[in-house]
């Protein structure tokens, strides 16, 4: 042995340690990979040795190599070996390695469960700590489930070091095992008030993280957090809480009102920038949530904006950045207060820091108005010219387009200017956003009718100079604009001055170098142009000119026919044939123009990108239903049409892409087949072919969408009109700058005319608001658009709203944590416990005070209790804010600053007095009612004040009046949702009294569990009723042949089981004991004793309390859901024996009756029809129990079926007793 | 939540990586490379926040980094973290790592440190600080970190756990680390070679 060790240490002399490895890698810079592979070989040898120190050293090196990108998963087992070393040094190395490379897919991870459990319960806090740290990185759903209970126990560890880690890791456990959230939550909440700041901070952290994802479930914690916020001095905790409030305020505006004041105080007082910043952020969130209701917060806004300005002006770039970030949030709701700082923002555009420039750009988006749009865009254009690096320039480009196109081109007064801006943007070198510009051109040209003439002129010029745009290869992005240009020129060819010239430009040989999809559009629009020219020439009776044009096409089209692009080729050859046919007709002097142009008759209207999705599915059409059952699974054909539809789906999701425009345009009056756009036709035809070949395709009757398309006339297209001023005509191709100048002049003229127009102004204002409901400043109203503008809104199916609430991502891992935490714990919701031991209870004392009751009835009860407690405890103190959120929110904040609008409300005072007085009179018996409870506290509050300060009375009353009524309304909906269908259930508790004396009161409940047959858990709530401190509690029972108490290993049947806690005066807690039961068909009783030491000032005494534990047959049943078909099968099987009872004189409603049976007897309702219900439950030994409950006039009959007749008759007897009390 | 913590040097060589979400080694390296690419091309006097940590998570994420001498300390966080708070945390972590792994630094810094950690006015002092650092410890700190990655990891583990900030009180962290190191020393093994301490 000794020799082996010596040998081991000699071997180690030659082993590399981590430092050697690092040094070695540094010394082998040129052949690093080779050196490392050599090292890995050595490590493999080291791992084969028995010496744990050698192994640990090897694993340590592996961890380093993992960081460099080497896969070390092959050593997973060795890592586990090192993790299970007894020495902390090695353990730490092992856990570190595991945390770096283990994940859910690591298969050996399941081997770690027991090791981790062992480490978690290790006496050394650092073993536990290191295990928790490691686990936090690689916890899997399995580990989470198996260890949840252990970790929860650690949350109450004596060492804060362990507590804080256990609390923090619970978040990871919740994520992986959402079922644990509800059982663990009460304790987590408890930790918010842990004496150790670290633990407190951890709990805040976890709850903030939870609440961020599902804020509404955590609203009820607001009072607690509020208290923490006003008491904590830890900036980190404060920041977290303040951030959390930012997430909560949108859900509860009253909370916001309460927050403003303390937050403002913090803003004024704190020196920590991080805290100041978060306060400002949350105040902004509050203001946003209040913006609808409370206009009088300009002071707070001013404060925020002013503080932010200080941040932005700071030389520290970080503060500048954050200031801009927060500013953009204010901008959304209070644009005016931000607009005042335009200078600052524009200044930031020149900053050297790109992040800051981008933020400033974001802000600009909200700052534009009709008045300053041109000026701002001009400034941006100069930045575009100056910008180095394409990313920033592209960002500028998209921002310019965003700014201009926002809210339906709201701020654009002159579309000619906008088109020329777009054209100028096409001169950008190497931008990726050609398609964006193209989409804008198309959109504007289609939707703003008045601009078409101008747009067409610009576009034809663009086509003419296409060689500039498409010349160099790195400008390929920008050539997208040619797509738009060609389409606009073709579609609106009637506005072209020189159509022939444009036609020739589009037929140049150079065009064939463009990308395929653009060529395709060229080809298509050449025909449109051609049709227009033919018509023109024929009207002028210039037959030879018409033939010349035809000839030109016949000559030039073949270059497209040879295209490698299928689409281009197909279109070109199709059109070539058409033109050749026309040529023949022309040769015979037949007028053809009419027919050719009828190919493109009608107008294309924009269709909203989401319109297709909004088309309602016709009634009775089940898209998921099979028409024919599928033939076999391996049918590959049915994937094809799917793929095709998916393709379409994608197109819809990127509406800006030019290709999508084809789909978004529906030609309104297709008078014949040829009237449809041939491409669409082709596509549709192709689809039809596909579908014809596909046996599974559902041939629908014409869809509503199609019918909609066919609907004749343009009249139904919503057109918003603004009829002002005369169009501005500018010849040639003007620069956007010219427009700015002209615009200024125009505005100046307008201003002069303004007096004259004053009368008309009102009318215009009305129109203005009709167009856009959003932001309008007065100065905006003064500026009239330069053109007569009809912005055609996009088509949508009837009743469909354009805004689309996109569904939440179903894969969101946080969705599973959207759990109602205010609901009391159900019996089934306990964390899985590994061993049969007296696990420390999973409930907080607060929960235990209150016996489990049904959901709805619990609220008032709980409050009532708490209230009593409070009165007992804090008699002399000011009544503290209750846990109840509504109450908390309805009370006034500590009255430091009086509300500004204080004295206006004298009239309401008298009325109010009566309202307030009433409940005060009934104070003694006002306990049961929620509303009364609510009003009582304010009234008390008031009483105190009343004595103190008479002047404050009216205000106080007014406030309570103002706030109490909304409380009542709201109490109805959010708190008690779900169970509103029938009358409220009476309070129910499954805990019954076990024994009681002057020291202690014991109540208990028996629960079976399906996993461990023949075992039941007895939960005993122990309540200290004395002034003594109770400790060394021990519970013992006299085992019977049938039932035995599970005792810790190694103890005899006469030993008691210690209760794992002590009870200070007035405190209660719950302990659980496991019993093993042989036969469950009979009820039975066990005698037992609780012994304890009661200690008070005079000394300590041994005390005893005897009790009888009653195991009813019911307690062996476990609520198990059952589906009606399974239930029917069970009844049909005939294995069950039957028995029945009848109880008379029942007045309770059937609903409540069922609830009572479910609750007290652990049944679940399978089906309920009128006054008849079938119910099901299962015993811990697997007996099925089926019930049929029928309600007569004043009686109830219960027919039962069960696999054991004795069990059934006993159960029914017990049930009879329960029903007799109904 | 903190999604990842990275340290790499001016050449993009990783010196420490901690991912709080599972990624394959290849993806991890790719993330490090791209983060380096993003961070390294930024000037010295620009803000310490970078949007669009596209690789980890989505647009909700931010990169918060600090550049000390030859090292970049980068945190990838989502919107639940306070930007300035994290910056401060990096600062504390950095100095304490130094204090623990680099003997040479310990003697120089405590006075500075105690002042700085007391208040949060870190930001204004930051520039002065980095400049001093750059002068004095050009290579020292990087080497110290390289050879003692495990120790830096241990300090980090006391600060951040599973992507959430565990402790911000530096005294508490130092106490725990010291206690653990003491424990480690007490576990002397007979076969320990003197090389271990070299």
Automatic annotation (TrEMBL), chain A:
Classification via Gene3D superfamilies: Leucine-rich Repeat Variant (1.25.10.10), Longin domain (3.30.450.50)
Biased composition regions of type Acidic residues, renumbered to the chain: 792-809, 967-984
Stretches assigned to the AP-3 complex subunit delta domain: 680-822
Biased amino acid composition, Basic residues: 756-774, 856-869, 938-948
Residue ranges of the region described as Disordered: 631-673, 741-989
Start-end of Basic and acidic residues biased regions: 648-672, 741-755, 810-855, 870-884, 912-923
Membrane-related topology note: Peripheral membrane protein
Compartment(s): Endomembrane system
Keywords on record: Membrane, Protein transport, Repeat, Transport
Family to which the UniProt record says this protein belongs: Belongs to the adaptor complexes large subunit family.
Full protein name: AP-3 complex subunit delta-1 isoform X1
Species this chain originates from: Odocoileus virginianus (White-tailed deer)
TrEMBL record, chain B:
Protein name, entry field: AP complex subunit sigma
Family of this protein: Belongs to the adaptor complexes small subunit family.
Organism listed in the record: Odocoileus virginianus
Gene this chain is encoded by: AP3S1
Keywords in alphabetical order: Cytoplasmic vesicle, Golgi apparatus, Membrane, Protein transport, Transport
Domain of life of the source: Eukaryota
Annotated compartments: Cytoplasmic vesicle membrane; Golgi apparatus
InterPro entries in UniProt: AP_complex_ssu (IPR016635), AP_mu_sigma_su (IPR022775), APS3 (IPR027155), Clathrin_sm-chain_CS (IPR000804), Longin-like_dom_sf (IPR011012)
Recorded topology in the membrane: Peripheral membrane protein
Function statement: Part of the AP-3 complex, an adaptor-related complex which is not clathrin-associated. The complex is associated with the Golgi region as well as more peripheral structures. It facilitates the budding of vesicles from the Golgi membrane and may be directly involved in trafficking to lysosomes. In concert with the BLOC-1 complex, AP-3 is required to target cargos into vesicles assembled at cell bodies for delivery into neurites and nerve terminals.
Pfam families: Clat_adaptor_s
Chief localisation class: membrane
Domain AP complex mu/sigma subunit, chain residue ranges per copy: 1-105, 118-183
